[in-house]
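fold-stage: in
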Amino acid sequence: MRFIIVTGLSGAGKTEATRSLEDMGYFCVDNLPPKLIPKFAEACIQSDGKINKVALVIDIRGGIFFDDLFESLNYLKEQDFKYEILFLDSSDEVLVKRFKETRRSHPLAPRGRVIAGINEERKKLREVKDRADIIIDTSKYAIKDLREEMNKHYGDSKQPRKNLSITILSFGFKHGIPVDSDLVFDVRFIPNPFYIPSLKPYSGNDKPVKEYVLEQEETKNFLTKVEDMLEFLIPCYKKEGKRQLIISIGCTGGRHRSVAIANAIYEKLLNKNYNVSIEHRDIKEDVHQGARKL
């Protein structure tokens, strides 16, 4: 049985994530009081395999009942019942915007400022986020993006993933560090193609920028050291049961250096048969009018 507990911040996309799971054949229950989780799990086990994919949405809407969550999770662990926690996160700015667009009040600040409710909710959810198996930051996700991410983690198999899923993520520091990063590498020490007129219109996906960045002595030394570090860290993460590893590579704008170097790291890990994917979060953020289209 695959038993998923879906939680996270209000407005971060739990509803859409649940719809995605339903489309994949999961039996979904929304806002179940945490104290009932053990009873529900036992009922699923007694279904003789008729219910083998389950998702429970648990969040602060449960009020005082939310405090029973960890007691129930500890009970499941004691009974050797396997479960996963999916945590949906998003930036404060995006959450405030979403609440304003829907004209909803925050459940923890029904008559106050939305940001106050968000801050309080982050405090309440800090421990469950620390225990999450997978964290998805939906700040820049459209609905289709979230569905693709859900399918990547939960749509391939009826059994939990045993292999570590690695994502190489390029970004620009001026757009903010990705909140779901596990490892962050700053490559702003490498000469910047942005200041070379012939290279500025291109991105790190294009041959002129790629060659310029990868030919720098600093880049060569950096890639050697990062590769050595990852060769040490990845088996350690696997040993500890980690299922998702986000390796973020940042430069100023997220368009030139970070993209080229992220691609290089991705190719190295792919060639070693790791379960790896790549994303370029900010590659289009700094495309000015008249620049070369990608």
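fold-stage: in (second)
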Amino acid sequence: MSTPPVNLNIDPRALGKVAVLMGGSSAERPVSLMSGSGVLAALQSVGVNAQAFDPAERPLHALKDEGFDRAFVALHGRGGEDGSLQGALELLGVPYTGSGVMASAIAMDKTTTKRLWSTADIPTPAYLSLSREALTRERVRTIPDELGLPVVVKPPHEGSSIGITKAKGYSQMQDAVTLALGYDDELLFEQCIEGPELTCAVLGEGANAVALPVIEIRAEDGNYDFANKYETDTTQYLFGSLPAALEAEVQRLVLQAYRLLGCRGWGRADIMLRQSDQRPFLLEMNTSPGMTSHSLVPKAAQQVGIDYPHLCLWLLAQARLDRKA
């Protein structure tokens, strides 16, 4: 594997006054507060003048008014990961971590991401996208006939497994739809790929982007839901469980998917490995991955010798705007 493009010789004082954006008003606010608290402590531990900033409690223009030089985006979900925050920071002229406006907006919409990947022959599970108006009881009953069972029902603009159901039978479909419609007006119905769940993080941009080691996730009862992500310690995260050639193929696909979306800074793809033929299928790209104690990007970075504080420091040093000042 290539050496990650991480220069750890960064002068923290040169990064100026830093806002760690956390909290926000999305359904992922609790996770964002955990991520942001971890990032804030890590940056302060290496000498960065970093302060917490919650956009749900303070107006964004305070970033400019109070002289912040850059922002570390530790927000998840809508209003933080979907391009709207990135656009506001562009207008304010405050450089920020992670992907820009367009890549953030596309990646936050799982349906649009899948459409784009499909045009480039990047494998992703078969799917249907249906609006609230189209989801009559009669239409919902036909979806398993088209995709097979189980069917994964998702609100395509949420993360952290919020609002997702793996419907194993026709009788579960309507409840799954009702739950997901509580979060979105358009739903994504996805063919369920049976097999191990994988994730792969990327650091960098364009041709210089590098994939970190692949992680196999083994959750209790095979259900990597919100509780198993953030509230328990029973989930196993395995490195080196794949044959070398298969791991390299997963990394190649993830890099292709990351570059196609125009991501920068960092990201993390979620993948299902079909048990029957060991073929990987990409589910989504996270452009503001979690940074909690349970989070996967820090685990992968540790495998290549990058500790948590220096990962945060490097990401902060990459902060920039889409446009030139």
